[in-house]
Amino acid sequence: MATEKLSIVKAINASLRTALESDPKVLVMGEDVGKLGGVFRVTDGLQKDFGEDRVIDTPLAESGIVGTAIGLALRGYRPVVEIQFDGFVFPAYDQIVTQLAKMHARALGKIKLPVVIRIPYGGAIGAVEHHSESPESLFAHVAGLKVVSPANASDAYWMLQQAIQSDDPVIYFEPKRRYHDRSEVDTDAATAAPGPLHTARTVRAGTDLTLAAYGPMVKTCLEAAAAAEEEGRSLEVLDLRSISPVDFDAIQASVERTRRLVVVHEAPVFFGSGAEIAARITERCFYHLEAPVLRVGGYHAPYPPSRLEDEYLPGLDRVLDAVDRSLAY
């Protein structure tokens, strides 16, 4: 067993290191990922140990980065691309949705594109414009892409391993506000035995209401469940882990027990991933629900300046308010 306490940053670094050691076809690419080790130091030390041909500093051109990764994947490589900040991904959006996501279907299954695109996302770091976006629903809407987001260091390590080994393109959203949260990570495949990449996980059992979240909001929901317990309420917290596909069976099973659901994400509520979850669970669990499915998230507005982001981001009070409204039915 190789268990140690790691931050999410260190867990991702360790996962990339394992992948680079295990498969000579794995490449790491992105702006400042080499000599600098990334703006968040996620790739620190990798270029020194694996060389400039495996850990590649690219020009500041996201469309070119992803386009090059597609070409490399066509030649048998497994590129892991870093987009430096969430709001920088949009110049590459055309390459991702019209080429990366479509090539497998376009080639009638004969071509696979095993590309991982790592995107640090979300707010609460006091950054300037275009550094705190949550664009996951834009990618979840695109057929041909898998979209995931870990909430802890163990998942950060193992979900990245699984994403790199996948023959399908994976958008891997990293909750940067949680980068320095630490937890136990077992990096031994013989003992860790991670579950399937796209399965949800119950991280706190409860009986009165289900809180479903992914990435940065899982910790917020756990804090809300702890606060609610002081008032005699038992909240179940479900870490969705995967945004596309969604583990609707796990959500349904939880809701059939608790009979109430609140979906929480940083992204705007309007046309967000919570809307699809709310619709599907209402269809599946209509006769089990004792309250409508509620959603908590950001506002339908551009991300504000850092002095206002605490008002924009969903926090403990907004989650507990939704819990109160659900339990009042």
Automatic annotation (TrEMBL):
Domain of life of the organism encoding this protein: Bacteria
Record-annotated Transketolase-like pyrimidine-binding domain positions: 6-181
Cofactor(s) listed: thiamine diphosphate
Protein name as it appears in the record: Alpha-ketoacid dehydrogenase subunit beta
One Pfam short name: Transket_pyr
Keywords tagged on the record: Oxidoreductase, Thiamine pyrophosphate
Source species taxonomy: Bacteria, Bacillati, Actinomycetota, Actinomycetes, Kitasatosporales
